[in-house]
């Protein structure tokens, strides 16, 4: 199969111009078939966590069904806001009818991973609106990325 690659689907599972979400080692990955070539990016939208595999695929662009952010499946780069962070990109290999993904071998354009801690949750009375305040800490550096407010 190849070192570091994991079988995630069969080529017949994902017809041309379609996508499928798979879970590999705890990561949600969106596999897209563009004209018989397979690409894999993170399946959770970097804007607000929408399910990219449930969105639409138009050429090399996947559109999030929640707020219409668009990403290039070849590079993970944002092609249309509101998202401003790219999706992680995964190396894909085809072995016969099997689609294989190399999870640990992400292509270097992957964004850094962060851990969020919920600091505050506010419900706006008389509405269905919620407001959240988080503290963001980098998992790589262990440094706090919470914005500070000065007087």
Distance between the termini: 58 Å
N to C succession of SSEs: EEEEEEEEEEEE
CATH fold label of the largest domain? Rieske Iron-sulfur Protein
Give the strand content: over 45%
Largest sheet: 6 strands, antiparallel
Instruction: Provide the CATH architecture of the largest domain.
Output: 3-layer Sandwich
The CATH class of the largest domain? Mainly Beta
Helical residue percent band: under 10%
Mean pLDDT: 85
In the sheet with the most strands, the strands line up as 1-10-9-4-3-2
Shape: elongated
CATH superfamily of the largest domain: Rieske [2Fe-2S] iron-sulphur domain
Low-confidence stretches: 141-146
Please, how many domains? 2
Helices and strands: which structural class? mainly beta
Count up the helices.
Answer: 0
Q: How much is the radius of gyration in Å?
A: 18 Å
Tell me the number of strands.
12
């Amino acid at each position: 199969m190849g070192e570091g690659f994991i079988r995630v689907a069969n080529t017949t599972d994902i017809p041309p111009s379609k996508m499928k979400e798979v879970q590999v080692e705890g990561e949600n990955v969106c596999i897209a078939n563009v004209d018989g070539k397979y690409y894999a990016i993170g399946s959770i939208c970097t804007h607000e966590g929408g399910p990219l595999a449930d969105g639409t695929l138009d050429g090399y662009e996947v559109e999030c069904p929640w707020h219409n952010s668009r990403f290039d499946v070849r590079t993970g780069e944002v092609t249309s806001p509101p998202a401003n962070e790219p999706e992680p990109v995964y190396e894909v290999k085809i072995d016969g009818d099997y689609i294989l993904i190399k999870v640990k071998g992400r292509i270097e354009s992957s964004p850094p991973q962060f851990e969020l801690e919920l600091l505050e949750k506010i419900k706006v009375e008389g509405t269905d609106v919620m407001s959240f305040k988080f503290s963001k800490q980098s998992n790589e550096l262990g440094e706090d990325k919470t914005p500070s407010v000065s007087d």
